[in-house]
Amino acid sequence: MAEKKKILLVDDDPDFVEAVKVIVESGGYDVRVAYDGQEGLEAVAEEKPDLIVLDVMMPVMNGHEACEKLKGDPETSGIPIILLTAVAERVTTSTYSHRDMLESEAEDYMPKPVEPVELLELIKSWLEK
User: Cα separations (Å) of 23 from 18, 26, 61?
Assistant: First the structure.
């Protein structure tokens, strides 16, 4: 049997993390979680995931900073990153913008609230590339 692909889910909302973890695991993936960008970087260093799902707005280190560090490191630059953000709905109340998403080095992004089936399809499409 083939080894399960490893997904790292980084988000500061424990309820969201648990819900998405269950959904992604139902797709046959092994999911590890972290609750801020710094914890996410540490998790990547310990066990290189096949793909990272990364929230943008988090304490300690936000998703853009974590993405920049991961993409700037030759050891982790090839890991696909999907940014998750509620920014699209709150551009006027956020310091982040749609432009930030497009300028990010992440491979893709998805607005919150996340549609579980769409997230699974996006993960699968990046893992098959």
Answer: 9, 5, 25
**Which pTM does this prediction carry?**
0.86
CB-based contacts of 55, cutoff 8 Å, min separation 6: 10, 11, 12, 13, 63, 83, 84, 85
Q: What is the DSSP code string of the chain?
A: -PPPPEEEEE-S-HHHHHHHHHHHHHTT-EEEEESSHHHHHHHHHHS--SEEEEESS-SSS-HHHHHHHHHTSTTTTTS-EEEEESGGG-GGG-S--HHHHHHSS-SEEEESSP-HHHHHHHHHHHHT-
For the 6-127 domain, the top CATH level (class) is: alpha beta
Average pLDDT over residues 16-36: 93
The residues near 39 (Cβ < 8 Å, ≥ 6 apart) are: 10, 60
Per the CB < 8 A criterion, the answer to whether 119 and 20 are in contact is yes
